[in-house]
Structure of ABC transporter domain-containing protein:
Amino acid sequence: MGVEIRVEGLTKSFGRQVIWEDVTLTLPAGEISVLLGPSGTGKSVFLKTMVGLLKPDRGHCWIDGKDMPNLRERDMYEVRKLFGVLFQDGALFGSMNLYDNIAFPLREHTRKSESEVRRIVLEKMEMVGLGGAQNKFPGEISGGMRKRAGLARALVLDPQIILCDEPDSGLDPVRTVLLNQLIVDLNAEIEATILIVTHDINTARTVPDNIGMLFRRELVMFGPREMLLSSEEPVVRQFLNARKVGPIGMSEEKDLSELEAEARLGRDPGPLPPIPPQLMTSDGRLRRTQHAPGEWLRTHGVTPPEGSFIDEMGRDWLQEWPKYVAEMSAGAGRHSEGAH
């Protein structure tokens, strides 16, 4: 089961350059969250600060009741054991085969026997679809397989928190979708708290329970997926529409004269696209932390963009959801009865 992460007033700079300041958010336990933002907004720096690799200028990051920036090194080392990290390029050791790469954290941080190590490594490799590939080297496999191997290594210590730093980096669209599916399935299986840093729009729109966005050295907003996907915030609309018009420019942000010129010409980032249904697990089961489609919108009286929650098969999930939940609950009941 994942743990809650509570960030309060976190600020980080390098010299005179402020990366972001006064970032405050809560990652709910066991939920999937995404952190969006244009390139260069400090998303990876945020992950490194969370795990204590970088020290913030001020602020707090509470993990399992412990404030990471104010911990002694020895105590921080213990809290880090709650984390599993999937790096951008997988960060595998080129001289080791996949088995030894994935076994590395177990050999480094535990006193498990080699038979225990083997059982865990093969179990995690099977979990990410790499069964039988233990003798392959990183240079012999595709980028997608390297990502999955990196994810298997992140899982071997049974983390309660998984951080994914641009997991789609270097992957084609199909393999990105497959990796997203794997992350959703893992969340259902182990109920870890997951934070994905990305600038892939499709990942942000379909995978998470919560979304945040960094821009202009601050957290523009953070909250349930439907809140951000229905937001009229100009930078959010521009990013979700992948438009040139809006506050984001080539050097992160446009200057005032560019924005005034766009306003004179009557240009805007365009209407928000429809909110897609959230990605389901491969076997159709409900994740424990999953919310009903449209729940946040109904609670807050927000009308979603036209065409929202309709999947590629034409099913409207606002109508289908109650029936789906009933079927899943009935199926779970039958499975429970059969087990006795």
